[in-house]
């Protein structure tokens, strides 16, 4: 099958996902958890008062209700000491005699900013190392650049998706999300290398075949393996997202989105980028 004759369609599909996500990232950004912004998160159990009344008690600390179920409330607020939290809880006991604090965590703004800095540095270092490694392994810079561009494609899709989820559904990104992003970068490049390695093998065996035909053959030969490998991961992550706990729900969703887009980009972004590079270099 001549996969590479549909290049405009592949890039159009990517644009339909990347453009809305990029717009959302620019306009709304990501809804960060307290690991990045700093603040306090606390959970109250055995609460009889309405969530509005409880939030009013914490009004000096700009409280936000994160979760409310089964007489349990999870609140995120500006940084508050555990001593002041207990004083507020003591005030709530007039109407909620059994109320108590079950979870409490505080992260200072400085630590939150340090986490953001380290996350950005990790992404930059990973990208540079992957660029250098792939370029060295394939003895051509174009392989490294195209692989990293496909990786950035996957990153923008994932970040844009969570920007939209944060704006419309209030989904926050935390350190688990950072873990998911770094994991997906690795998966995306791994799948891309499989395709690129097959292109290199075929180019050594078929000296007189044009580059587009080599890419088509490589994509055809690796397609089944890539799909089978990715579907086993996708089914597991889908089950984890649907039936897993609240803590890992959006972590598994991030991995799921990344796996799908990584599988797509390895064949329909990374390989087409090589074809375009080859055409441009031949014109020059």
Automatic annotation (TrEMBL):
Q: Which GO terms describe its molecular function?
A: protein-transporting ATPase activity
**Stored SUPFAM superfamilies:** Multidrug efflux transporter AcrB transmembrane domain
Q: Topology versus the membrane, per the UniProt entry?
A: Multi-pass membrane protein
Main function: Part of the Sec protein translocase complex. Interacts with the SecYEG preprotein conducting channel. SecDF uses the proton motive force (PMF) to complete protein translocation after the ATP-dependent function of SecA.
- Per UniProt, residues of the Protein export membrane protein SecD/SecF C-terminal domain are 92-278
Single GO cellular component annotation? plasma membrane
Name this polypeptide is given: Protein-export membrane protein SecF
